[in-house]
Design goal:
By secondary structure, this protein is of the alpha/beta class. The chain has 17 helices and 18 strands. Helix 8 packs across helix 9, helix 12 packs across helix 17 and helix 14 packs across helix 15.
Length: 503
């Protein structure tokens, strides 16, 4: 495993760029024609890097109208997240959902919702996916580009691919995507194709070099040598003069040749790199380039010029609401290694919590209905005296068939949702934490019946998102979206401790 310091030694130092500089550039470009970024988030964990933005779990025209109006009326940064949950869908379903969302967003914008009188509302589209490269690529940006072209006549010149998530240890250097080591391996880099995530049953891959990843996933439609690579020499072109304008021009110049959805991959190691990239993309779009984005969680924060939000305290999590005296509900569905370790740490430290394991084999058997009834009864009674940790059995039932893997995942998720929803309607918990991407998506949209929410900010530095539901039966209950693959072994316990009254 290479050392990060050695890999970075070949490149310039980062250029210091305040978030305000990006925000000012975005505001200037939006002065005559306001722009909102519509973030199609394939699971809800993409919100963990932003704060004070609206999020939708439904995408009717009326939902977008609410979001655009909320942004305008509250003078928020111009972005809205749409929880698509497409990582849990097969390709045909994912394509149909992306198309429907883009059409409805454009229809709402066409009604000038959210813009001042007489001003048209422009939309930019972001396909937010996994920082470890799992998801429907290139399908989703392809569908977004085709739908925009069909609805507006506007062709996409480039698809900017930025999976980096430094807060969670994912960085891209020299066009190669890495995971940072932790513990004894701190300071090292592991190419992402050599991690457990590359072996995903539905979205596995073989290449860590992003240009080759694009060629692999596009089945050769985009050859590796046709991919534009914005390495750190370009992103940090202004380092010698400490001038971000130089970097912005270098980035815009580098993508000048992009046409017909040319893939563009970007090196990112720090927040300043995100901001440099944002200024470069602003300049490219000012010159007339039409871009879509396929990105990891922090890209949007940098792109809109939002400051990094400090982690929320327990008091801030309940601000404006009176917390219930009931216990909290912690729901764990993810099976990646870090989640299993986090669950182990939580159960060992939180001795007052009741642990309820959902047996996946029983969910797939003939007695699933009665088994669910028993589980709900146990959860409700336990919440009356303290926190409850509900987790699926850690034995992952694997199959080589991607479609069957998704079917099993859906069956398990449906059961988890049913437990949460029936518990909510019977005895609402003090808080809800959902661990895992698909789990947290389904718990939000169906278990808690959240339609509209506001992302308040992170519960840990740069990761783990707090949503405040603004309507529905979960209104007033803090909902914590916790990705399966982020944090250290103590992170789940740390977040639970902030919210619990018995830990």
């Amino acid at each position: 495993m290479p050392l990060e310091a050695d890999v970075l030694a070949a490149f310039p130092a980062e250029v210091q760029i305040p978030a305000e500089l990006v925000a000012d550039a975005v505001a200037a470009s939006s002065a005559a024609s306001p722009r909102v970024l519509v973030v199609l988030d394939d699971d809800p964990t993409g919100t963990q890097s932003v704060a004070d933005l609206p999020v939708l779990t439904r995408w009717d025209v009326a939902d977008f109208t609410w979001a655009f109006s909320h942004i305008r009326e509250n003078n928020l940064k111009s972005a809205v997240y749409v929880l698509t949950n497409t990582r849990s869908l097969d390709p045909a379903e994912a394509a149909a959902r992306n198309e429907e969302i883009v059409r409805n967003a454009l229809a709402a914008a066409g009604n000038t919702a959210g813009a001042a009188e007489g001003q048209a509302l422009r939309l930019g589209f972001v396909s937010r996916s996994d920082s470890t490269l799992r998801g429907h690529y290139p399908l989703e940006p392809d569908v977004i580009a085709a739908t925009v072209a069909a609805e507006t006549g506007e062709a996409t010149d480039g698809v900017v691919i930025v999976p980096a998530f430094p807060d969670a240890g994912r960085v891209t250097i020299g066009g190669v995507h890495y995971m940072r080591g932790t513990g004894a391996d701190a300071g090292t880099l592991t190419p992402v194709a050599e991690t457990e995530f590359a072996k995903d049953a539905s979205f596995g891959f073989a290449n860590s070099e992003m240009a080759k990843y694009v060629e692999e996933k596009s089945k050769g439609r985009f050859a590796a040598d046709s991919v534009i690579v914005l390495d750190l020499n370009i992103i940090r072109a202004g380092a010698a003069a400490a001038d971000p304008v130089i970097s912005a021009k270098a980035i815009a110049d580098a993508i000048e040749s992009a046409t017909d959805s040319t893939p563009i991959v970007a090196d990112i190691v720090t927040e300043n790199d995100f901001r440099a990239l944002a200024l470069g993309l602003e300049e490219a779009e000012r010159r007339g380039k039409k871009l879509l984005y396929r990105v990891g969680p922090p890209f949007v924060r940098g792109r809109i010029g939002q400051e990094i939000r400090a982690q929320l305290s327990g008091e801030e999590a309940y601000a404006g609401n009176t917390p219930s005296e009931a216990g909290g509900l912690i729901v764990v569905g993810s099976h990646v290694g870090v989640t299993t370790r986090q669950l182990k740490a939580l159960t060992e430290q939180h001795s007052a919590a009741r642990i309820v394991e959902i047996d996946v084999e029983k969910l797939l058997g003939d007695s699933a209905a009665s088994y669910l009834d028993e589980t709900v009864e146990t959860v409700v009674e336990s919440l009356r005296t303290g926190d409850v940790i509900v987790h699926t059995s850690r034995l992952l039932i694997k199959t080589d068939d991607a479609a069957e893997s998704l079917r099993i995942a859906r069956t398990v998720s449906a059961a988890v949702v049913a437990v949460v929803n029936r518990t909510l309607k019977t005895f609402p918990p003090r808080f809800v934490i959902a661990k895992g991407g698909i789990t947290s998506s389904d718990v939000a949209a169906h278990g808690l019946e959240i339609r509209h929410a506001i992302v308040r900010g992170p519960m840990l530095p740069g990761i783990v998102s707090l949503w405040e539901p603004v309507d529905g039966p979960a209104k007033g209950i803090p909902y914590i979206v916790f990705a399966g693959n982020v944090g250290d072994d103590q992170s789940l316990a740390d977040v639970t401790r902030k919210l619990s009254n018995t830990f």
